[in-house]
Every structure is written in structure tokens, then in C-alpha cells.
Amino acid sequence: VSGTDYKVDKFLVGVTPKKNYVVLGESFEAEVFLSAYSSKSDGVSINVDGRSLPVKDGIGTFSEKPSSVGEKKYNVSISVRNPATGQTDVVKKEFSYEVGQRSVAIQLDKMNVFYIGVQNPISVSAAGVPSAQVKVNGSGGGINISSAGGAGKYNVTVNTPGEATITVSGGGVSQSFPFRVKRIPDPVPRLGGKITNKGGTMGNGEFKAQGGMSAMLDGFDFDAKCDVVGFELNYVAKRQDVITKTNNGARWNSEVSSLIEKAKPGDVYYFDEVKCKCPGDAASRNIGGITYKIR
Fold this sequence. Notes:
5% of the residues lie in helices and 46% in strands. The longest helix has 8 residues, at 254-261. The chain is mainly β. It is rod-shaped. The termini are far apart.
């Protein structure tokens, strides 16, 4: 029998995990084998994703710092030249690893609320489960879940008051989270679209400069706007009977505008029965009224 010889004089233990992560309750599985190489060989070339690695005693070290979470793949190519024959063999294989992120989560049991008519942003993570395997589903409350573009970022919309549930699953695990579904809180009536116009006294000129009534969501952190659909104005001048006018919409109509122009120190204006519609409202809601005394 004739052939060529390529002598090896070094041995290592090689380990190839079935996957580079494991969830509590699962089994870790890896192939363990004996690896042999020649310490005197100068014909070994190791390349990862097009980048050549420095080789010492037949071994190269690959290192990279990922910039995002999720599954990361890399391709390894090893060229070995037989010094006896001059022939070169090339071996290629793709590997992957999972990048996670340290995080701390706090769940507020009294604040797990979705609001109707707005996008409710949520962040979802499942430790030990590859991001590509994470599934997010919802039920109840007319819930709809859509991707917000980033890893683990979603927008939730709902349309029915009551309760909704979001289920996160993947990698053999599944967990459900309950949420309450509520309407947007009642806004407060304000004059001229200024949150500081809370009623009380107002100068004659400033009062006449206001153009209408607003419904403002004071302290509500979502991007939502409520529209005034109508109100009732009661005008009380000194030693005069009350004059009442009804206004449809937020801006003054001609009759209300004429009463506003009559404003003088000592007069009182009662804006009552202010009605508005917020995102998701099927019908208008009464948010009360606001009073101004002219100085």
C-alpha cells in the first residue's frame, strides 16, 4: 500500500455544543471529540467571515463584540496544506451564538393598563430564548399587536373595555400576562388651549382674545387629542339676567362670540355641559364646566 504521510504530534479536546444557550429545565448537549494537529505545520490558515486569524500551534482565536441582541452567525473556513504532498484541503462550517442583554423588570400590579384609542408601547424579552423564536399573542379587549420596529418592541391597540391577555412563548416556554383595558381618562375643560387657564379671574383683554374651548389631557403621557363637540355658555353681567347660549364645536359661534365681546370687569362667564370626544370614543362625554370672572 502506498500513500502520503502527515504527522500529528499534538492533541486537544474539542467540544461543539448543539446550541450556545440553555433554558432552565432543558438538557445541555454537545459533541465531544479528540482533535489532533501538527505543531510544526505552517500550512494552517483560519478565516472567520473573511477575516484571517493569527494561528499559533495550529489554533486560532476568534473574538468579536456584538452591537445588538439576537442570534449572530459566523462562517469559519480552515485551510490545511499537507507538507508531504503540497495539497491543500479546505473545511467550511457555519456557527451561531445568541446575544442577550442584562435586564431588571418591575411589574406594577395596579398599573397594567391598556388605553383605547392610542398605541400602547410594550417591550418583550424572554431570557434564554432566541429572539427569532419569541412569539407574542393577545386575546380579549379587541387587542391587536404589531411590531414597533426594534428588537422586542411592540405596539398594542385595544377597542373594548374589560380585560386582555398577552402571551409570550418560545423555546418551549409560555407565560401569560393580564391587562386591564380602559378608556382614556376624562380631559379637563380649558379656555384657549392653555392648560394654565383653569378658571378663576382673567383680565378683560385676555379673555376676549381666547377663541374657543379645549379639552386637555392633563398629565396623560400618551399622544392623544380630545375634541370639544359643544358646550353651554351662561353670561352673568352685573344686575342683569342670565343669558344662555349653546355652542356646537370648540370655536365660538356668532352668538357666543357676541357675549364674549360684552365682557367687562365684574362679569361672570359659566361654561357648562362641556362635551368632547377622545380617541376610541363611540359617543361624546360630558367633562363638566369652568368659570371665569372678568377683572
